[in-house]
Amino acid sequence: MLPAVAHSVPGDNTIMLGDNPLAMGVEVFGEMDHASVRSNWIQMSVGFGLGILGGVSNSEITLNELHGTGEAALVAADVGFGPMRANRFIQNATSDFISAAVDVYLDPSTSGPAELGGAGVPQSHLLQQARQGRSLRGVGAA
After folding, report:
1. Is 97 among the domain residues?
2. What number of other Cβ atoms are within 10 A of residue 26's Cβ?
3. Residue 34 to residues 6, 109, 141, Cα–Cα distance (Å)
C-alpha cells in the first residue's frame, strides 16, 4: 500500500461516455489510500458508473450524479490488487440511472465499513453483494 496521501478527482466535471461496455464514469484504481471523488455529473449509455477498483482503502465517492444506463451504478471490486477497506459511497444521486445488472456491486474482498447511502439509491436495491466465486459480467473475476 502506498503511503497515506490524499488523491482527488476535481469536482464540477461533466463526463459523457460513449459505447464502450467496459467504460467506467469515474474510477479510483490501484493501491491508493484516502482518495476522494466528488461533485461530478456523469452521463452513461453502457458500462459502469462510479467505481473503486483494486487495493483502494479509506476513500470517499460522494455527491456525484449518474444519468442514463449501464451495468451497475456503484462498483467496488478487487481486480487483483488486494482487499479494499473502509471505502464510502455517500450521497451519490443514482435515481436517474437504470442498472442492467445490479444497482450496487461489492466484490467479496470488500471489507470494513463499506458505507452506502444518500440521495437516489433505492432502498429495496441498496446492496447486492456477490456470492463467492460469482462476478458481475467479468468485473472482479480473475
Report:
1. yes
2. 19
3. 5, 18, 25
Q: What total number of domains does the chain contain?
A: 1
Global pTM value:
0.70
**31 in any annotated domain:** yes
User: Greatest CA span in the chain, whole angstroms?
Assistant: 38
pLDDT tens digits for range 63-82:
999 999 999 999 988 887 77
User: Does a structural domain hold residue 138?
Assistant: no
| Any domain includes 1 | no
Whether 84 and 110 have beta carbons less than 8 Å apart is answered as yes
> Range of 91's domain?
19-125
What pLDDT, in 10s, does the model give residues 103-142? 888 887 777 655 666 554 443 333 444 444 344 443 433 3
Instruction: Give ∠ CA 88-77-45 in degrees, rounded to 5.
Output: 90
- Euclidean distance between CA atoms 111 and 94, whole angstroms: 23
Q: 54 is written with which cell numbers?
A: 483494486
pLDDT mean over 27-46: 89
